[in-house]
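Journal club prep — side note

Before the paper discussion, L.F. wants everyone to see what a predicted structure for a comparable chain looks like in token form. Sequence:
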Amino acid sequence: MSEITKHISHSFESVSETDILNIIDTVKRLYKFDLEHFTPIYLNRRIVYSMQKMKVVSVGEYIRRLESIDFFEQLLFDLTNDGVEFFRDSQIWKQLIKHLNNHFSKNDTLKIWFPDFAGGEDLYSFLITLNMQKYISRCLIIASGYSENRISFVKNGIYLKPLDETIQNFKNTGMELAPEHFKSMETAILLQSELTDNVTFVNSRQQQLNYNQAFDIVFYRNTMIAINKESQLLIENKIYDSLKTGGYLYIGINERLMNIPTEIQYKTIDEELRIYQKK
């Protein structure tokens, strides 16, 4: 570890509340983007990570560098939670296959929305599942995100993930492994990035999203933990409005819907797996 990295790691285990507020104000003033959308704990942790990654030795310098649009785009990239495994929670994917088979036994097409595709792990897991079931050409998929750099990263399909762990997670779903889906690249894995050709990526900072009963499935997993309660309620309402009657909502198994009582809006398909169906 270099001396500068040692210094940063020691000095910036956290950032003061005042410094966080200054960063929030700077970003809001320059780019009209509200970092208060995130929980204070999550925002602090990701800014510390960003400072370490960019080798910035003071908050003052970090704020000055935010004047650069490229630096701001890097911050947006670093705000994304990219620690999720591919095919995490194997039972989710088994249940999804059942829903897909049932849907396509009665319908020709399927519309899917990822309100925040985060690091892209769930998106790729979904695309591979669709491809394995030979449904992908019959699907319209929209993936929203606030980082243009992250969109480019996901399209590239290279992830610093353990190959053996990814393959094991995939096998746990019960699907038969296809060699083209995962390729080893020394310390990284290459996914079948051509699958993203079936996805319309939307930069949610640049395009207003108004989907009225448009989707059969909304996939919003392992993202709520990063946002505050007010933002969570807003996105939940948007998701509810975007789903067709009978459409499915998937959230993370450690997450909870804020709208109470949920049973008025949704039928619970699986409480443990957090799968709901719009009434």
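L.F.'s comment for the group: The CA atoms of residues 172 and 235 lie 31 Å apart. Keep this in mind when we get to the figures.
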